[in-house]
């Protein structure tokens, strides 16, 4: 089992920045990719960004490219999502996820953290 705990959400004005953190515990070696997803009200959950545990290869949704940066600290089993130039459409609950490999259904989910961007 892997436990994921997110933090760092909040309320920010458009154009502002936030950094989300996700700390993993348990059998972290059983998953090779860490990712962020988000779910806005009345919308389906969508992929935001991912990073591989060993090589640090990253992937982003087109909607966040150039504004969001995913990074990792393997020493502390923590993944970060730096979000800059936030827009009201970025408002959502952001979920940390652990995947066995990229492109597969996440095996573990965090509880989510709310990000609200006001216009």
Give a verbal description of the structure.
By secondary structure, the chain is mostly beta strands. It has no helices and eleven strands.
Total strands: the figure is 11
Structural class by sheet pairing and helices? mainly beta
Percent helix range: under 10%
Portion of residues in beta strands equals over 45%
The chain-level mean pLDDT equals 95
SSE order:
EEEEEEEEEEE
What is the general shape? Answer: globular
Instruction: Compute the CA-based radius of gyration.
Output: 13 Å
Low-confidence stretches: none
**Main beta sheet:** 7 strands, mixed
Number of helices: 0
Task: Give the distance, in angstroms, between the N- and C-terminal Cα atoms.
Answer: 40 Å
């Amino acid at each position: 089992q892997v436990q994921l705990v997110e933090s760092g959400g909040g309320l920010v004005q458009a154009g502002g920045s936030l950094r989300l953190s996700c700390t993993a515990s348990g059998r972290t070696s059983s998953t090779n990719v860490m990712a962020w997803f988000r779910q806005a009200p009345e919308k389906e959950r969508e992929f935001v960004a991912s990073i591989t545990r060993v090589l640090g290869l990253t992937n982003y949704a087109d909607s966040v490219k150039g504004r969001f940066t995913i990074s990792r600290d393997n020493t502390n089993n923590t993944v970060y999502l730096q979000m800059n130039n936030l827009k009201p459409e970025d408002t959502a609950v952001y979920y940390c996820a652990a995947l066995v490999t990229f492109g597969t259904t996440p095996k573990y989910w965090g509880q989510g953290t709310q990000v609200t961007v006001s216009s």
